[in-house]
Amino acid sequence: MVFYFAKGGKHLTEIKKLLKFTRGYGLMYSIGIVSIILSQGVTLLSPLVIRTTIDSIIGSSIIENKRVAYFVGLLGGRAGLRENLWIIGIIIIFITLLRGIFLYLKNTMSSKSAENIAEKIKNQLYDHIQKLPYEYHVSAETGELIQRCTSDVDTIRRFLAIQLMEVVGSFFMLVFTIGIMVSLSPRMALISISMLPLSFAFAYIFFKRVKKDFKEADEAEARLSTTLQENLTGIRVVKAFAREGYEIENFDKKNSEHKRLNTKLIINLASYWAIADFISFSQIGLVIVLGSYQAVKGYISLGTLIAFTSYIGMLVWPVRQMGRTLTDMGKAFVSLKRIDEIFLEPIEVLIENGEEPPISGDIEFMNVYFEYEKDRPVLKDISFKVKAGETIAFIGPTGSGKSSLVHLLPRLYDYTKGSIKLDGHELKSIDRHWVRKNVGLVLQEPFLYAKTIKENIRLSNPSYPDKRVYDAAKTASIHDDINSFEDKYETMVGERGVSLSGGQKQRMAIARTIINDYPIVIFDDSLSAVDTSTDIEIREALKTRRNKSTTIIISHRISTVAGADKIYVLDKGKIVQSGNHEQLINEEGLYKRVYTIQSSYEDL
Amino acid sequence: MDKEDITKERLNLSIWKDFFEILRPYKIQFLKIVGMMVFVGAMDAIFPLLSKYAIDNFVEKSKLEGLLSFGLIFLIAALTFSISIYLFIALAGKLETQMAYDIRKLGFEKLQTLSLSYYDNKAVGWLMSRMTSDIQKLSETISWGLVDFSWGITMMLGVTIAMLILNWQLALITLIVVPFVALISIYFQKRILNAQRVVRKNNSQITAAFNEDIQGAKTTKTLVREDINLKEFSELTSNMKKNAIKATVLSSIYLPLVLLLGSIGTALAINFGGNYVIRDIISYGTLVAFISYTTQLFEPIRQMAVIFAEVQTAQASAERVFSLLKEEPEIIDSQEVIEKYGDIFNPKKEKWPEIIGDVEFRNVSFSYKDGEEIVRDFNLHVHPGETIALVGETGAGKSTIVNLFCRFYEPTEGEILIDGINYKEMPQKWIHESLGYVLQSPHLFSGSIRDNIRYGNLDASDEDIIKACKLVNAHDFIMAMEKGYDTEVGEGGNLLSTGQKQLLSFARAIVRNPRLFVLDEATASIDTETERIIQDAIQNVLEGRTSFVIAHRLSTIKNADRILVIKDGRIIEAGNHRELILSKGYYYDLYKNQFIREESKIITNQVFN
Question: Which site among A93, A345, A430 would you substitute to test the B interface, given the most B Cβ atoms closer than 10 Å to its Cβ?
Answer without folding.
Answer: A93
